[in-house]
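Consortium newsletter contribution from the modelling node. Members have asked for a concrete example of what our holo predictions look like. Here is one, prepared for the DQA complex that several groups have been discussing at recent meetings.
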Amino acid sequence: MNFLVLNGPNLNLLGEREPEVYGTTTLRDIQAGLEVISAKRKHKLGFVQSNAEHELIEKIHAAKKEGVDFILFNPGAFTHTSIALRDALLGTSIPFIEVHLSNIFSREEFRKHSYLSDIAIAVISGMGAYGYELALLGAEEYLKNNS
Ligand code: DQA
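And here is the predicted structure:
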């Protein structure tokens, strides 16, 4: 299976950014953990972080051409603002799980709305870095049952 893990703005700061909210695990640690799991299970795994909305959109477009089966997506603050990312995901029809380290429903009002949740296969929010691993296993199960 071919997975793409996409990370939006400010997630490059994980580890030092508001550790009381996002924990102390770095994005590199998250990537390393997912790579170990993927290698064991013989999956292909791409891992990308960008602070630019257009780069995330282009990665989603490219994923379609590259035969990515499933996207694990933490869109960061673009979750709450980006119709363009929603359209990119709808336009390519690649199934995805929306991942958030924090529980976006227990925070400020503006974080409670996501432009992506209703078109996601699932949303994992509030499990910290472990949420990415849960998403990978969930995506694998989804693909086993739906392809
Ligand atoms: C986040 C939650 C978003 O509201 C926030 O803007 C982020 C990180 C999370 O992983 O909890 O940048 O996506």
